[in-house]
Write a structure and sequence with these properties.
One of its GO terms (biological process) is tRNA threonylcarbamoyladenosine modification. By secondary structure, the chain is of the alpha/beta class. 33% of the residues lie in helices and 26% in strands. It has 2 domains: 132 residues, ATPase, nucleotide binding domain (Nucleotidyltransferase, domain 5); 95 residues, 2-Layer Sandwich (Nucleotidyltransferase, domain 5).
Length: 242
């Protein structure tokens, strides 16, 4: 089964091609070029470089967020459009869950995996996980939320991590002071791989969870600015609001 995975939720974004649980190729995006400009051209180019066309893809996969609102919507719309045109299904996974899986794979000796991702406005998207008792997955102990680094670090401390914590995400080390103040040497930073690679492998293992393109929904965690503005003005809100 040929899987094409796209992450547009992180700063650079990435795409990956995998077959039967093995990554064939991946490409990291250029953060200086908007997702709307790069897609879907980057997708077609990656497929072509390995002798494939869009019709060869058996399953599409997308990172659902959280992340930058515009890039996230562009990426999801790209995957939805391609899957709909080709009558394919889409596997969707939380960006935070994917980062946690990558963190666990890189530091399997740790009992805690913390995701620390830029949330803009001086905030972070975050969640805290532990390895699953069954299989190689992870389970959230602190579910996904957005807050200041101090709020997030306090929330982590509230569940009492009692061992080393693998920390992964693009808000490290820029927004790490709050974590360092509370956990110090217990923190073990992990460099994230291209997230589309993790997504492509997960999609191949979890085919039964794939959905029809129309069922794909973003996971904003925080409502978009346009929605908040309408709510503050007492105006109605329709469509996806996160």
């Amino acid at each position: 089964m040929l899987v094409l995975a796209l992450d547009s939720s992180t700063r650079t974004g990435s795409i990956a091609l995998a077959r039967d649980g093995h990554v064939l190729a991946s490409r990291i995006g250029d953060a200086a070029v908007r997702q709307a400009v790069r897609l879907p051209g980057d997708v077609v180019a990656l497929l072509s470089s390995h002798g494939h066309g869009l019709a060869d893809v058996d399953l599409f996969a997308a990172a659902a967020g959280p992340g930058g609102f515009t890039g996230l919507r562009v990426g999801l719309a790209t995957i939805q459009g391609l899957a709909m045109a080709l009558d394919r299904r889409v596997f969707v996974a939380s960006t935070l869950d994917l980062l946690a899986l990558a963190g666990h794979a890189a530091a399997p000796h740790t009992r805690w995996i913390g995701v620390w991702m830029h949330g803009m406005r001086g905030e972070v998207f975050t969640a805290l996980y532990q390895p699953s008792a069954v299989g190689a997955g992870v389970v959230p102990v602190v579910p996904a939320f957005v807050g200041t680094p101090d709020e997030a670090a306090d929330t982590w401390a509230g569940v009492g991590p009692d061992n080393r914590i693998a920390v992964i995400g693009d808000a490290w080390p820029e927004a790490s002071a709050a974590l360092l103040a509370r956990f110090g040497d217990a923190l073990e930073p992990v460099v994230a791989p291209p997230l589309a690679e993790v997504l492509a492998i997960e999609a191949g293992h979890r085919i039964a969870e794939a959905v029809v393109p129309a069922a794909v929904r973003p996971a904003y965690v925080r409502r978009p600015d346009a929605v908040l503005t309408r709510l503050q003005a007492g105006l109605p809100v329709t469509g996806d609001v996160g």
